[in-house]
Every structure is written in C-alpha cells, then in structure tokens.
C-alpha cells in the first residue's frame, strides 16, 4: 500500500490521529471514485435506453398467446384515447409502422410521436388495469 511507503517521509507525532486521518481520507476517496463510476454507469444506461426507445426503424413483434381474449378489451380502451394518441398507437402497433413512418403519415414531429405513443400506452395500461 502506498501509505506504508509514505510513513518514512512523513513526520508522525501522534500515530492514532495520523492513522485515523489516512484511513478516513482513503475511504472518502474510494467513495468518491465509486460515486463517479455509478454516475457514468447511469448516464451510459440512460443513453442506451434512449437510443433503443428512439430507434426509428424498429418494427414491433407481438405475443400472440391469449390474443383473442385481449383484443376486444384493447379495442375498447383505444376508443378512450385522444385522437393523436389513438392515431399514433394504431399506426405503430396495429399497422406495424415505424416511428419514422408514423411521423411522416401523421405530420407530427418525432418528439410528438414519441410523446403521444408513450402517453397512449400509459393511458391504455391504466384503463386496462381498471377493467
């Protein structure tokens, strides 16, 4: 350890105080380093999540198991969405369009399309949980 090598070059008058200070500073440096690493990881994962969610060329795949029971409830729930949300959800999920195609067809910008879809999915989920 580096601290042991420094003992020879330092003037240590009270060993207890010195070892306490050295230990405390060492621990604080470790915590700061870990905090920085965690922050970088958070930023990386947030950027990754954003990149995946914002991919404009993704075509969605569906789980067909139990679909026959869910379709009527989902159709009814879609009716309760506002026009923008309904239009974007139908194009993206029911007509298998990409985000880019939905933006082109509707005339909304990409930010609006993503917002309408995100809010629409949340509203659908809330509605279906109540039913």
Structural class: mainly alpha
Distance between the termini: 64 Å
Q: Quick one: overall form? A: rod-shaped
- Classify the beta-strand content into a percent band: under 5%
Order of helical and strand elements? HHHHHH
The poorly predicted ranges are: 55-62
Rg: 28 Å
Main β-sheet, in a few words?
Answer: none
Oligomer state equals: single chain
Share of helix, binned: over 70%
How many strands in all?
A: 0
Describe the secondary-structure layout:
Layout: H1 2-6, H2 15-53, H3 67-79, H4 83-94, H5 99-106, H6 110-130
Helix pairs in contact: 3-6, 4-5, 4-6, 5-6
Written account of the structure:
The chain has helices at 2-6, 15-53, 67-79, 83-94, 99-106, 110-130. It is rod-shaped and about 80 Å long. Helix 4 (83-94) crosses helix 6. The protein is an all-alpha fold and 131 residues long.
């Amino acid at each position: 350890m580096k601290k042991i090598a420094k003992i020879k070059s330092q003037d240590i008058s009270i060993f207890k105080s010195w070892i306490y200070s050295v230990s405390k500073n060492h621990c604080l440096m470790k915590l700061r380093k870990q905090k920085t690493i965690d922050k970088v990881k958070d930023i990386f994962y947030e950027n990754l999540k954003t990149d995946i969610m914002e991919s404009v060329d993704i075509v969605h795949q569906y789980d067909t198991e139990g679909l026959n029971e869910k379709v009527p409830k989902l159709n009814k729930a879609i009716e309760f969405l506002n026009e923008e949300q309904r239009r974007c959800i139908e194009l993206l999920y029911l007509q298998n369009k990409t985000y880019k195609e939905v933006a082109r067809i509707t005339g909304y910008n990409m930010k609006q399309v993503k917002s309408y879809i995100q809010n629409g999915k949340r509203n659908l989920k809330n509605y279906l949980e109540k039913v």
